[in-house]
Design goal:
The protein is mainly beta and 215 residues long. The protein is built from three helices and eleven strands. The termini are far apart.
Amino acid sequence: FYQYESSGAGSGFIISEDGYIVTNYHVIDGANSIKVTLNNGESYDATLIGGEELNDVAVLKVNGVTGLKPVVLGDSDSLVVGETVSTIGNALGSYSFSQTSGTVSATGRSVTMSDGTVMNMIQTDCTINNGNSGGPLVDQYGRVVGITSAKLSNNGSTSSSEATIEGMGFAIPINDVIDIITDYMQYGYVTGRPSMGIMVASITEQYQSTFGWPP
């Protein structure tokens, strides 16, 4: 038989001195192993602490590392159209620490993702390439205000009936997911969410005779 292995690359940012890292859920979804490379070039194995597809956010933990320099978080609710922002990430999976700048084009933009999920997004004209997913969107003071997550694309079509899409990138507002991130860091799961459990079982003759079903 044939065994196929593949790998992918994305971006992330350090949120604590002891090695917690934030990225997009779709960056690590389905991964059997995760490796994090820091800005000094050193690579470490990372553990997935928690994540969710709905909000496209995940928290990783690099063990055995201390004294890291975390990012400074900003207030995404205070962003205004026209404000200068920048992205930093692993563009194309090969060009680490690539930085692009632009402006906030819109806030509170409803964007339908490829799986049909509708997310609240910051729209920016910063250049975003494959590999930038999970990286920080920072304001003019270097504070993280969003998580770079998506860009619109027409798959490179150059037909006259379909215009080329440029300068439409999107980031998850940090205020929308910071409580989720801190819950994963503190508890390993998101608190305060109601849940309902349903158990499905086959109705056997023994079950019917024991519980008198059907009535």
